[in-house]
Amino acid sequence: MNLPVDEHPGNHIAGAKLGSHVVLLGCGRMGSAMLAGWLNHPENFLKISVIEPAELDKKYTESDVIAHYSSLDDLANIDATPIDFVVLAVKPQMMAEAVSQFRNMALDKIVFLSIAAGLSCEWISEQLGGNSQVVRAMPNTPAAVGAGITALYAAQSVAADQKEFCVRLLQAIGGVIVLPDEKMMDAVTALSGSGPAYVFLLTEAMQAAGEQLGLPQELSYKLARGTISGVGALLDQDTSDASVLRQNVTSKGGTTAAALSVLMEDDALLKLISRAMSKAEERSRELGK
Ligand SMILES: NC(=O)c1ccc[n+]([C@@H]2O[C@H](COP(=O)([O-])OP(=O)(O)OC[C@H]3O[C@@H](n4cnc5c(N)ncnc54)[C@H](OP(=O)(O)O)[C@@H]3O)[C@@H](O)[C@H]2O)c1
User: Is residue 182 a contact partner of residue 135, using CB atoms and an 8 Å limit?
Assistant: First the structure.
């Protein structure tokens, strides 16, 4: 699959540090999606220490590069290899407790990469006792199949090569875009973070409307789903503006034009999406307080 272009100027990763010791804290849905991608490039890692209370899948435990621990204490008791990166992939409500375990470590050389929604670099740094190097990222659900789009922001204290390595870690689950300002994260959350749900809702709506037009449920389901996934693949391969792609399939006086006249009348859909995303952005700001 042709993944979204990484807008980051340093995509070539020329100066990135390879052979790092990466600790993955939390190996649930997102953590295991990243881990699966990292295994395709084991040369990037000296080792990957996974801290996760549950059992790990055999494909991970059989890998020479991965070691599994049920707690940070277990890791510290068994392995003294200095840690370069800690990827924080636990739920936001578990984060304070999970991160505070690292407070007793020498943190000056460790970069913390958090994928938790709504938690700022400053908040995470505070949990670590202040002055830590924190990178924050917002992935989205298609990451589970390697087709996510992640926005990343690195605090000033993070060196360029460490930021590059974080980009590389996240490229395991799709495209990565580096943000110049952390304040953009709330709008990003409203767009790409929550965005998959808007598209799922559109799929549901098309399916329901198909049924109202007399199509059997199963047929309507398959047509709606196939249309949305096909459009996703097309957008992935054809970089023309979405408006151009839309105009290309809209003949004057045709069926598509008839439908779009409803959706675009008074910018109806645009206004609705805009209202919805403003709500999401507002909520993201509230949750981050
Ligand atoms: N899923 C998404 O689409 C998505 C999108 C954007 C951002 N994110 C962010 O990604 C993060 C992870 O989400 P997820 O969906 O992967 O969650 P998840 O499936 O619940 O995975 C989190 C894992 O961390 C484990 N865990 C909890 N406390 C721990 C600790 N102290 N040390 C080590 N492991 C611990 C959990 O174990 P237990 O189950 O036993 O607690 C669970 O296996 C969240 O912060 C979320 O905001 C997710």
Answer: no
User: For the chain, first and last CA: distance in Å?
Assistant: 38
C-alpha R_g of the chain? 22
**End-of-domain residue from the set 151, 184, 217:** 184
Q: Are residues 163 and 24 in the same domain?
A: yes
In a shared domain, residues 38 and 164: yes
Domain with 222, as residue range(s), is 195-287
Give the predicted TM-score (pTM) of the model: 0.88
Same domain for 132 and 178, yes or no, is yes
How are beta strands 133-138 and 148-154 bridged, if at all?
antiparallel
Per-residue pLDDT tens digits for 59-105: 999 999 999 999 999 999 999 899 999 999 999 999 999 999 998 88
Q: Is the CB of 117 under 6 A from ligand 1?
A: yes
Q: Given ligand 1 and candidates 25, 30, 114, which is best to mutate, with the most ligand atoms within 8 Å of its CB?
A: 30
Q: What would the pLDDT profile of 194-221 be if each residue is shown by its tens digit?
A: 999 999 999 999 999 999 999 999 999 9
Q: What is the Cα–Cα distance from 56 to 11, expressed in whole angstroms?
A: 31
Query: Per the domain annotation, does 6 fall within a domain?
Result: no
Closest CA to 134 of 159, 113, 118: 113
Say whether both 151 and 85 belong to one domain: yes
Q: Domain for residue 5, yes or no?
A: no
C-beta 31 within 6 A of ligand 1? yes
